Amino acid sequence: MEAPKLRGMFRNVRTKPRSFVFKSRHLSDDPPQWGERKRRIESEVAKERGEKVPEHKMASNIRFRKGGSVRKSARKANIRVILIGVVLLWITWKMIVWAETTEFGKMLEFIRDNG
């Protein structure tokens, strides 16, 4: 004899299981024009090699960034980290000076001597 199947307090309201759908950031959902794209890239490569490309195969220039903006942003990030470090060191130094010059410093010396 089987135990009766009782409804649990917490039940799964989803009727179908979880699934994963990959959506690329680089390719659109529209059908890609691979032939046109391939022709443009081949003509650009041939142009860079110095080969003569017929006019009907010429395409617009494809430009890639040189990476200057990456260097600039990395430099800004490094300067920001250094500034934060300097500010934290200054705050720590001020706290130590404060602790030594107030009654709190005397209490710390008492604890160190008698601890």
Characterization of this structure:
This protein has helices spanning 34-49, 68-101, 103-114. Helix 2 (68-101) crosses helix 3. The model has no long low-confidence stretch (mean pLDDT 77). The chain is flat and about 90 Å long. The longest helix is centred in the C-terminal third of the chain and has 34 residues, at 68-101. It has 115 residues and is an all-alpha fold.
Notable traits:
single chain; 115 residues; mainly alpha; 54% helix; 0% strand
Summarize the model shown.
With 115 residues, the chain is an all-alpha fold. The protein is 54% helix and 0% strand. The chain has helices spanning 34-49, 68-101, 103-114.
Distance between the termini: 72 Å
Spans where pLDDT lies below 50 across 5 or more residues? none
Share of β-strand residues? under 5%
- Judged by helices, strands and strand pairing, the structural class is mainly alpha
Tell me the number of strands.
Answer: 0
Give the % helix.
40-55%
Major beta sheet summary: none
Q: Quick one: overall form?
A: flat
Number of discrete helical segments: 3
Average pLDDT: 77
Name the helix and strand elements from N-terminus to C-terminus, one letter apiece.
Answer: HHH
Task: Itemize the secondary structure elements and their pairings.
Layout: H1 34-49, H2 68-101, H3 103-114
Helix pairs in contact: 2-3
